[in-house]
Amino acid sequence: MKELKDKVAAITGAGSGIGKATAELLASQGCHLALSDVQGPALLAVAEQCRKHGVQVMTDTVDVANREAVYAWADRVARTMGHVHIIINNAGVALGATVEDMNYADFEWLMNINFWGVVYGTKAFLPHLKTAGEGHVVNISSVFGLIAVPTQSAYNAAKFAVKGFTEALREELVIEGSPIGVSCVHPGGIKTNIAANARLTASSGFTSSGSRLEMEKMFMTPPEQAARDIVNGIRRNRRRILIGPDAQVIDWVSRLLPEHYQDLLVLGGRWRRRSMLKSKGSATV
């Protein structure tokens, strides 16, 4: 899809971060938008900004973990906008906990949004993309869909699953000769509010406000750069879109050290654990 003007793109999680930046970039290129988020006020502000580019924008408050709601939204978008050409399954949440400490409620909460939300969005919109005669599916995975990281087992599980699901979908559509492109996106640390809204247990090591700030400092890429990479990926029908220098490095490490990267992460985890214990010990003296 080299021409985006007058196309229609649906984006989940469009109220902030990557979703917001991508919506604004697409609007600047003449693409009409159907935006959804669970945060209504933030979504309306994004829509108002996008309309300044003279494009049509519709908004809906949608919980992507609700299959019926996602399918109803997809049908409403196609009916209201006439066609849908792009679905960007961007909505996501974070959870930090060891496997032992993580409770099932939090695990299911993350999987319902980060994995099932992608599946629902893909399956609900795919028939509409085919009806339009051309289109593109963009599913947001993560660099944590390339490597596993301590205290991120749930996030890893969801993002690895998104990668496998998306790559299989692309293969199926190529086999059938479909005009629908598919891209799997692997962002590194993007400056969004995902860390601020994450569910964290003490075992994650990031429960204090100071440690959350420490986590956020590792996010080096602005969402506007992520948006540019995603839109370029749609135009070029890229299979895999790596976002940020850290994503490039992690992809390289996962290929060259498919087993031994874990040893490096274990060393880092042990060092951090000793630092945490030492800090706690000093605090009790």
Structure overview:
By secondary structure, the chain is an alpha/beta fold. It has a single domain (8-258), classed as NAD(P)-binding Rossmann-like Domain (Rossmann fold, 3-Layer(aba) Sandwich), CATH 3.40.50.720. The protein is built from 10 helices and 9 strands. The strands form 2 sheets. A 7-stranded parallel sheet has the order 3-2-1-4-6-7-9, with helices on both faces. Strands 5-8 form a two-stranded parallel ribbon. Helix 1 crosses helix 8 and helix 4 runs parallel beside helix 6. The chain is globular, with a radius of gyration of 19 Å. The termini are far apart. 44% of the residues are buried. The model is unreliable at 208-213 (pLDDT under 50).
What's the layout of helices and strands?
Layout: E1 8-11, H1 17-28, E2 32-37, H2 40-51, E3 57-61, H3 67-81, E4 86-89, E5 95-96, H4 104-114, H5 116-132, E6 135-140, H6 153-175, E7 180-187, E8 199-200, H7 209-217, H8 223-236, E9 240-243, H9 245-256, H10 261-284
Parallel strand pairs: 1-2, 1-4, 2-3, 4-6, 5-8, 6-7, 7-9
